[in-house]
Amino acid sequence: AKQLVVLYASQTGTAQEIAKNIQAEAEQRGIQGRVASMNEFGFDSLTAAHPPVLIYVASSTGDGDAPDNSAKFYATLRRKSQPGGLLAGIAFTGFGLGDSNYTRYQYVPRAIKQRLLDLGAAQFYPVGEADEVDGIEEGVDKWLEGLWPALRKAVQPEGAAEMAGVPPLPRCRVRLVWRESGDGGAAAARPSEAGAPGGAELAYRDPDGQYSLEQPFWAPVLHLELDIAGSGMRYAPGDSVGVLPRNDPALVEALLRRLELDGEAVFDQQTGGGEHLLPHLRAPCSVRAALTGGVDLTGPPRKSLLRLLAEHCGEAGERAALLRLCSRDGRDDYGRQMVAGRPSLLQLLRQFPSCRPPLDALLDALPPLAPRMYSLSCSPLECPDKVQVAFTVVRYSTEQYGQHQGVATTWLHGLCEAIAAGAQPAAAAALRLPIFLRRGGAFGPPDSLETPLIMIGPGTGVTPFRGFLQHRRAQVAAAAAGGCVAGGTSSTKGPAWLYFGCRREDQDYLYREDLEGFQADGTLDRLHVAFSRAQAHKVYVQHLMQQHAAELHDMIARQGARVYLCGDGAGMARDVHACLASILQQQGGL
Ligand SMILES: Cc1cc2nc3c(=O)[nH]c(=O)nc-3n(C[C@H](O)[C@H](O)[C@H](O)COP(=O)(O)OP(=O)(O)OC[C@H]3O[C@@H](n4cnc5c(N)ncnc54)[C@H](O)[C@@H]3O)c2cc1C
């Protein structure tokens, strides 16, 4: 890894000023470097450690003499006894200041360049010159234009430049305009929820404390009820509810510290054509609000984000490692470390401590924090003013980055914890959650009660079927009472079967009372539960289905049953589908 050193030989302060500006801009561009007068730095330091990338800015004084703060360095550099290859490995460029009214114009800067070349250093970008007579600033600005790409290459370690398939640096599309402190607006900034489709804020008003821990042994599964009375929301079984989550406040605070950002600072986005380029960040927005509710901080890092982070690493080795991760050559590493490891943005920034990305580019590169969907576990016929869901609190660890927790489920768990633990009644909690409804479409109970139902829902996959069965119970009751209920057209009902799966009967049997209740009152004809860990060999829903192959075949092939499958177990859907296909094949002689 090559370090940048910016040295000046300055009599009046002009060369010093230019050198400091170069170092500051380099840092802004993610290249860390040191700036010093030549004497301060010392000639010996040039050869002491790894050969640096050197930029010098020099002027002359008197009759072609070196300025005072560089005289010793200059004399040592010019010593005839210095061995030829002494400065081999050093990449350099420089800029000379002079006044062509003097006879020894550019004498010192040119002498420095010549000596560096004599001693084996390599010029990585042409040395520039400016004449006081024409104006120094103009000359400097022109020279600086070409410096940055050349400097970037010079500080890169060998091989990094040839890495195949490094994506281009994403262009930052936004400009943040900071508000004066006390200018207000931050309190009104509510990223995500205000911009959500059909977003609504709902008061939690249940008096009895309807949050409950279904089972505390394994990953907790929570049942959550939300009061939608007066919201105008109308739902059907099979619909799901979208929740706009919040990132963990501890993560946000740690990120603010790492990026040295003021969480209270409020910004607007510069509006190009009058439109917000990042609509998920409702400006004016505080930095804390943007990081809390606006952007995804924990999803697998995208390659464009890694490319951005690489650009802002001051340490060349870190930059090269990030470039590799987002390159075509580094595809396997990306899969292993980023996709399987799932580091959060904070973990990445800790892994690459020299990385200092600017906030505007970072907000542009991070994906919006997505709403999380939850299947409704109720029916509007039984719960017209509520929506109910059940969710597993996501916790897992990866080999590469340790413990992880799901964004939405951890947030919801935190909100409900005191209520679930009995420390606080739900009514007193006065929680308000931003939610919206999404239609289930074809995933809803059949129009006719006569149509046989086969429902397969292991784990939290059972939740929509609780809703289906509540609906069916209400329809049957209404039909029996001679009433007319939307969705129910017959009082002769077809068979309804449910396959549910969990680990153990006493641990994670979700909605047990409800399911057994549906069976007891005849809403459900058959309830089959696979307890995967109750015996030495694992038993899953498809194993039970195989045992009922002939009946299932009859229901599907002869009676026209509708088959529903819900759940997220790895490979579960594939295995159940294969099981059904084999049943139809065997039994139907296909
Ligand atoms: C239509 C629909 C209905 C849904 N209904 C329900 C429901 O009723 N109940 C329910 O609990 N969920 C349901 N989900 C899933 C739910 O939307 C969320 O994805 C889930 O709750 C996780 O959200 P989170 O923000 O807590 O986790 P996130 O922060 O999004 O993290 C979850 C991600 O972490 C990764 N991950 C999780 N476990 C591991 C592991 N062991 N190893 C490696 N990586 C892992 C996976 O990539 C996973 O996508 C539904 C999803 C959809 C689309």
From TrEMBL:
Cofactor(s) the record lists: FAD; FMN
Coiled-coil intervals: none
Presence of the UniProt keyword Transferase in the record: no
GO molecular function annotations of the record: [methionine synthase] reductase (NADPH) activity; flavin adenine dinucleotide binding; FMN binding
Domain Flavodoxin-like: 4-148
One annotated GO biological process: methionine biosynthetic process
The protein's enzyme class: oxidoreductase
Enzyme Commission identifier(s): 1.16.1.8
SUPFAM superfamilies listed in its UniProt record: Ferredoxin reductase-like, C-terminal NADP-linked domain, Flavoproteins, Riboflavin synthase domain-like
Protein name: Methionine synthase reductase
The organism of origin for this protein: Chlorella variabilis (Green alga)
